[in-house]
Specification:
With 561 residues, this protein is an alpha+beta fold. It folds into 2 domains: 2-203 and 234-333, 3-Layer(aba) Sandwich (Rossmann fold); 356-558, Sandwich (Jelly Rolls). Helices cover 21% and strands 29% of the residues. It has helices at residues 41-44, 69-74, 105-117, 133-143, 161-165, 174-181, 196-200, 203-214, 217-220, 223-230, 236-242, 249-252, 256-259, 276-288, 312-324, and strands spanning 2-10, 16-23, 30-37, 78-83, 94-95, 122-128, 152-155, 166-167, 170-171, 193-194, 267-272, 293-298, 336-340, 345-349, 356-364, 368-370, 384-388, 399-403, 411-425, 431-439, 445-454, 486-499, 504-510, 536-541, 549-555. A hairpin with a 5-residue loop joins strand 1 and strand 2 (16-23). This is CocE/NonD family hydrolase. InterPro entries: AB_hydrolase_fold (IPR029058), CocE/Ser_esterase (IPR005674), Galactose-bd-like_sf (IPR008979), Xaa-Pro-like_dom (IPR000383), Xaa-Pro_dipept_C (IPR013736), Xaa-Pro_dipeptidyl-ppase/CocE (IPR050585). Keywords: Hydrolase.
C-alpha cells in the first residue's frame, strides 16, 4: 500500500485541506473513494490496527467512521481521507456545523473531487464513503454536482439538522459528545472552529438569546448547559444547537434534506433500526434525490461498530457497478430492503413504506391497550397519571404503562406511527416520551421505537401531516395552560417489527428517560434527552370523550383482530 500523508489540496478560495491518500502500488489508474469529516484523519487510520468494537465497549469511539482502509484499497480503490477546514491538519475556519455559516462543505467537496480526478493515479471516477458525519456531507457535496462525482453511499447520516439537535422539540445531548468528546467519544479535532450563531447575531440579539435560554427551567437544572452558555468559547459547535430550540432558516438552509432534490447521481442510503433520529431523515432524503437510488433499513443494534467495518460488501458492489462498470446485478435487486425485527428476516420492496392499514390501539383502564375504545365517561373512567420531580431532588423516572393481552396471532407492522394523547399538566410545559416495546411470553421486553414531543411544541401542520406521521413545524413554542386538557399527537419513529403470537405490545409514557437501561447502553455517549426541570403532575385521559390511542401501521394483509 502506498500512503501519501498530509497532502495539501487547494480550494477555490485559497484554503488548503489536508488529506491522507491510501492506494495500491499499481501502474493502472483507479477510482477514488473520498471521506471527509472534522474528527481527524489520523483517528481514521486506526482502522488499520484497531479491531472493530461494539457498544457498550469503552474502546468504541464514535468518530472512527471513514471505513476499512485495507479492504477498500484491496478492492482496487484509492481511499482518500480529508480533514474539513478548520480541523486536523487543514487550513481555514469551520463556522457552524457542516460549515453552514461559512464557505460550506459542499463546495469543498466539489473542489476535492475535481482535484482528485486529475491526479495521475486516478481514472477520474470518484465516490464517497463513511458513516454519520461522513455520510451527511455526501449529500451536500453531491448537491453541488461536481462532474467527476459519479455516486454516493450514505450510511447513518444526519440529513435533518434540527432532528440532529432536537427530537420533537426536546434537546438531545448526544451532539455534544460527538463535537466535544465525552463519554469515550473523541469529538472534533478542533483547530479554528466558530459558532455560526455568534458570528451572525448582533451583540444585543445574542445576549437576548442567552438570557432566554438561561431562563428555561430545564437548562437551569442541568449544570453542564449553564457552563456551555456562560463560556461559549469552549463549546462553539454545541452552543449553536443549545441556543436554537426552534426550527427555521438556521437549520433548514444547511440541512442536506433541503438540498437532496439537487442530487442527480446514483445514491444509496442505509440506516439502522433503533436510530430513529436518522431513520426518518434518511427516508425523506432518499425520497427526494433524483438519480438512481437504493434504500436499506438495517437490523439492530442501532450503532455500527467502530472502527466502521460493516456494510462494506454492499458498498463496494455499488461502486464496482457505478465506478468500474462491473455488471454485478445490484440494480436488478429490490430498490428497498428492510430487516423485519421480531421475525429476524429481510424483506425486499420497490418502495417504502409497504401498504399498511392504520389501526388504533386504545388506552384503557388498568393499563390495558385494546382495539376498542373506552365506553365510559371521565366520571367513571378517571385519568391515569404520573408525577415527575426534577432530577435535582430524585433519581426516579415517573411513567405510566399500557399493554395488550397476549396476542392471538402474529401482527406485522412497518412504517411510522403516532400516539394521540389527551393530557393535562399542572405546569406550562413538559416532555412526552413514548417507548414502544415487544414483550415476550417470559416478560422480557425489547424496544421497538420511540417518540418525543415537548408540550409547548404541540402545534401541528395539518397540510403536511399524514396518518401515523403528524408533522410539527417546531417554529414556535406555546406554553400550556395548566390543568387544561390538551390533545397531543406524538410521532413514533419508523420501524418494522413482527409482534409474535403470545407476545404483548407495551407502551410506556414518561417525561424523562433512563440513562442506563439496556437500550441506552447500545447508543452513543450521552445519548439521552435533556430532562424536564419542572416538577410536573401528568394526568392522562382515556375515557369515552378523550380517546387516547396509539395509531400503528399494520401490514395490510394482517388487519383482522
Amino acid at each position: 500500500m502506498i500512503v501519501d500523508r498530509d497532502v495539501m489540496i487547494p480550494m477555490r478560495d485559497g484554503i488548503q485541506l489536508a488529506a491522507d491518500i491510501y492506494r495500491q502500488p499499481s501502474d493502472q489508474k483507479m477510482p477514488a473513494l473520498l471521506a471527509l469529516s472534522p474528527y481527524g484523519k489520523n483517528l481514521q487510520a486506526l482502522s488499520l490496527t484497531l479491531p472493530p468494537q461494539a457498544r457498550p465497549n469503552p474502546l468504541w469511539d464514535g468518530g472512527i467512521e471513514a471505513g476499512d482502509i485495507r479492504r477498500i484499497v484491496d478492492r482496487g480503490y484509492a481511499h482518500v481521507i480529508a480533514d474539513v477546514r478548520g480541523t486536523g491538519g487543514s487550513e481555514g475556519e469551520l463556522c457552524g456545523n457542516y460549515d453552514s455559516g461559512g464557505h460550506g462543505e459542499g463546495k469543498d467537496i466539489y473542489d476535492l473531487v475535481e482535484w482528485l480526478a486529475v491526479q495521475p493515479w486516478c481514472d477520474g471516477n470518484i465516490g464517497m464513503v463513511g458513516i454519520s458525519y461522513f455520510a451527511t456531507v455526501q449529500v451536500l457535496g453531491a448537491a453541488e454536482a461536481p462532474p467527476h462525482l459519479k455516486a454516493i453511499f450514505c450510511n447513518g447520516g444526519h440529513f435533518d439538522l434540527y432532528e440532529l439537535a432536537y427530537h420533537g422539540g426536546v434537546l438531545w445531548l448526544m451532539p455534544r459528545a460527538s463535537r466535544e468528546g465525552r463519554g469515550g467519544d473523541s469529538g472534533v479535532a478542533v483547530g479554528r472552529v466558530k459558532s455560526k450563531l455568534r458570528e451572525e447575531l448582533s451583540e444585543a440579539d445574542y445576549s437576548a438569546r442567552v438570557a432566554e435560554r438561561l431562563s428555561d427551567p430545564d437548562i437551569q437544572n442541568w449544570p453542564n448547559l449553564t457552563h456551555v452558555i456562560s463560556y461559549p468559547e469552549t463549546h462553539e459547535l454545541w452552543l449553536d444547537f443549545v441556543l436554537n430550540p426552534l426550527d427555521g432558516p438556521f437549520y433548514r438552509e444547511g440541512s442536506p434534506v433541503t438540498h437532496a432534490h439537487k442530487v442527480e447521481i446514483p445514491a444509496y442510503f442505509q440506516s439502522k433500526w433503533g436510530r430513529g433520529w436518522t431513520i426518518d431523515g434518511t427516508i425523506d432524503t432518499y425520497a427526494r434525490v433524483k438519480g438512481p437510488r437504493k434504500l436499506d433499513l438495517l437490523a439492530s443494534p442501532p450503532m455500527q461498530e467502530r472502527p466502521f467495518h460493516e456494510s462494506h460488501e454492499e458498498m463496494l458492489r455499488w461502486y464496482d457497478y457505478w465506478l468500474k462498470g462491473i455488471d454485478n446485478g445490484i440494480m436488478d435487486e429490490p430498490e428497498v430492503n428492510y430487516f423485519l425485527e421480531g421475525a429476524r428476516e429481510w424483506r425486499g420492496a420497490q418502495s417504502w413504506p409497504p401498504q399498511v392499514d392504520w389501526v388504533p390501539f386504545f388506552l384503557r383502564p388498568r393499563h390495558r391497550l385494546a382495539y376498542d375504545p373506552e365506553p365510559l365517561s371521565a366520571e367513571h373512567s378517571p385519568p391515569d397519571g404520573f408525577y415527575q420531580a426534577p432530577l435535582t431532588v430524585t433519581s426516579e423516572n415517573g411513567k405510566v404503562v399500557w399493554m395488550t393481552d397476549a396476542l392471538l396471532e402474529d401482527i406485522e407492522m412497518a412504517g411510522s406511527g403516532a400516539m394521540h394523547l389527551f393530557a393535562a399538566i399542572d405546569t406550562d410545559d413538559t416532555n412526552f416520551i413514548v417507548k414502544l416495546y415487544d414483550v415476550d411470553p417470559h416478560g422480557k421486553k425489547r424496544q421497538v421505537t420511540t417518540g418525543f414531543l415537548k408540550a409547548s411544541h404541540r402545534e401541528l401542520d395539518e397540510t403536511l401531516s399524514t396518518p401515523g406521521r403528524p408533522h410539527h413545524p417546531h417554529t414556535s413554542a406555546t406554553p400550556v395552560t395548566p390543568h387544561e386538557i390538551v390533545e397531543y399527537a406524538i410521532r413514533l419513529y419508523t420501524f418494522a417489527n413482527v409482534f409474535k403470537k403470545g407476545h404483548r405490545i407495551r407502551c410506556e409514557l414518561s417525561c424523562n428517560e433512563s440513562f442506563t437501561d439496556e437500550h441506552a447502553q447500545l447508543l452513543p455517549p450521552d445519548s439521552f434527552h435533556l430532562p424536564s426541570g419542572r416538577a410536573t403532575a401528568h394526568k392522562i385521559f382515556r375515557d369515552r370523550d378523550h380517546q387516547s390511542h396509539l395509531l400503528l401501521p399494520i401490514v395490510a394483509k394482517q388487519t383482522e383482530k
